[in-house]
Amino acid sequence: MYQLGLDFGSTLTKMALIQPGGKDTPFPRAVFKYKTNDNAEDFYKALEAFLQKEQISPNSIQRISATGTHSHLVKDTLFGVPVHIVPEVTSIGKGGLTLSGLDRALIVNMGTGTTYVDATGAEFRHLCGTGVGGGTLTGLGKSILGTGSVRDIVRLASHGRLNRVDLLIGDITEQELEFLPPNLTASNFGKLAHPLYANQAKDATKEDLAIALINLVLQVIGSMAVMVCKSCNKKHVVFVGTLTRIPQIEKIYSIFSKVYDLHFIVPPFAVYGTALGSILALGEDV
After folding, report:
1. Three-state SS for 37?
2. Distances (CA, A) of 3 to 40, 208, 273
3. pLDDT digits 0-9 by tens, 92-131
4. pLDDT per residue as tens digits for the range 4-30
5. What is the CA radius of gyration of the chain?
6. What is the distance between the alpha carbons of residues 84 and 65, in angstroms, rounded to a whole number?
7. Residue 155 sits in the same domain as residue 245
8. In what order do the strands lie in the sheet with 12-18?
9. Residues 38 and 150 placed together within one structural domain of the fold
């Protein structure tokens, strides 16, 4: 038998199917995502297609949970099984801890915007959030690069050079700073209007702008995580949500881990962390 967790985000709906006691536990047996809209019938068609693709009968699902900003779209029952609405903060915290194998951490949900959750044992507390997230990346991508596709932005960024756009620590000083490597950004997009770097700015390509944009979004989210960690006394930061699929995240956050003496972690199945957390939380009081 299976359990199904649904995360209805403002941009994407994520689904995670688990088989308690199966070889994949605690990781999902199967996952799926589709673009959220206000037409509930589209969701049901997407769900049926997901189960057919995985060759799973709806009759084999014994438990269903839903969370997220659009969880009101789901019916009270699916396939004759009651749907349990789980608070999003609980789902984020539970999913992040489970996927990372930790018992306490700051969990950062990187969706259209970004949410910061203090997770300690079975207690989950919303600390703060920022409007900077996937919506920022796609919105600025559309404005600056002419595309709001994350796939296109990532593809462009893979060939970009950050030092043509960002003002780096190594640009502003030749001193060796103990905690600040020379390749760390001092000012995002700082070279584009700086008179001393007019030639570099002139040569900046779409690819360079794309990597600078990704760097900007991830650095804002990461910098906030550092400050929040200081306030809630955490050493581990676990990232879940759609933006974790961006390949540049590993390099950017490895620098953060070293500079700030924190552990930045992107666990397996991070995109589906909140969906997974919603179904796992049903085993506890929510």
Report:
1. coil
2. 21, 44, 15
3. 999 999 999 999 999 999 999 999 999 998 899 999 999 9
4. 999 988 888 888 999 877 666 678 888
5. 20
6. 5
7. yes
8. 30-35, 12-18, 2-8, 61-67, 81-85, 77-78
9. no
